[in-house]
Amino acid sequence: MGARLTSRFALTLAGSALIGGAALASRQAADIGAAQTAFGQSLTLRADRVVLDSSHPAMAWLGQRAPVPYTAQAALRLTLELRTTAAEPALVKALGDVRIFGGNLAEHPFPISIDLQGVPDGDYQYIADVRDGAVVLTHLQVRVKLVAFLDERHADVERRLSRIRGHDSAKATIRYPFDLARVINAGKRVFGSATNNPEFGLTQTGEPHHYDFAAGLKRTADVLAALEKGRDLVWRAGGETVRHYYMPEAGEILPYHVFVPSKWDGKAALPLVFILHGNSRDQDFYFDRDGRIIPKTAEQHGFMVVAPLGYSPNGGYNYVPYGRETSAPRGMAGASSLPQTFGPGARGFGGVNGSVTPALVRSEWSELDTMHVLDLVRQEYPIDPGRTFLFGYSAGGQGAHYLGPKFSQDWAAIGIGGSNAQPGSTYPFDKLAATPMMIFVGSEDAPNVLPSRNMTQALLQHGVPAVLKEYPGATHDSAPSAAIADLFAFFRSHPRR
């Protein structure tokens, strides 16, 4: 009897040991899984450049956002590939299978050499999988743009430009592709940023614009070759061109879009419509949209049209809703006065899309860029000060409500559409007493109908000559096309007396 009890007791102990061992193994597996997840989430792939010369070796580094500790269960390896940017990325080139040795990847990222020779120019992405044995810890992606012999071309261009005096505008256009690459690689603009906050603007269908380096470099070659022969293709150019200038505050070369009517004789004073684009758009948008209705209408009326970038597609022209102003400074001063957070948990550099430029600074630079462009155009072309008009739509309408009164001496009349700006308690009506304004909105643009009515009523009550036009059936997207003919007619009938 005692033997049977002892045997049963032994079996019970053995069973308990098995159960306890399984639980321990399960906990250990869970701990390993949690550690792998935390470590994988901490990993990041950093490229030396995202716009790069494919004829030279490139570098990337496997690093950590924070020093999460981890002990690999097997060989830690990184597989790197170059793939297309399509929805289903196709393999372009295998870039290596690298053993990653232990260490603090937060302080000392692991270097990876990359050979891109032979890959055609274009937009691609690095795809990296980091594995611990058979377990994939993370899947990393970095957008890159390849431009063969970019560095050699840049050196050649600078050598040739050093022999030419003056022609700053043409030189800015010549240098723009190289400067844009520098700015992107420095982190001031983010290549491949999301469509809800693009760096290079969206088309009317919502597709992101990506700068065409091949076309830009061809323009560089053409303008430089002509300049060496004594011909400046940029200064006082007719027709439609994208121009460039160096903005000292931002330390970069910026684009702006210019249309000159074909009937201009090179001497007569030109009427000017100065356009502020809306959020997520760029300097090209109002020249391309709705079957190019704006340059076509401008050609009919003999008007010059200019659109600045405003530093960024979402720069906002430094507008703040009237009546909501705070005592906090804006721009660089405002960004510098905010608490500066560093270390784990801090987001990027406080900038847009993870760039190094804070939103407050971009907003201030948006205003500065806009007014720099107006000054440059007036210095170059014989602009008629009595027929210089401001037009802003959507977020550009907010910008026009800010830059319109602030620089009221510059505008003979102002057109604003699709804006939800409200008059507020601080709206400077007194500065617009002699400036006619046309406010317009589509009847189906619900968020902006009532604000447009309120703003027009307030303008009239304060003695500002204003008119409101509502377009039946027009939406926020279609209202500009419906209004353009009326807008140009309004401008033609309201020169400064």
Q: What's the Cα radius of gyration? A: 30 Å
Query: Would you report the number of β strands?
Result: 16
pLDDT < 50 runs, ≥5 residues: none
Strand order of the largest sheet: 9-10-12-11-13-14-15-16
Q: Tally the helices: what do you get?
A: 10
CATH topology group of the largest domain: Rossmann fold
Number of domains: 2
The percentage helix is 25-40%
Structural class: alpha/beta
Q: Biggest sheet: strands, sense, closure?
A: 8 strands, mixed
Overall shape: it is: globular
Instruction: Output mean pLDDT.
Output: 90
* CATH secondary-structure class of the largest domain: Alpha Beta
CATH architecture assignment name of the largest domain: 3-Layer(aba) Sandwich
Strand content: 15-25%
Query: Termini separation (Å)?
Result: 121 Å
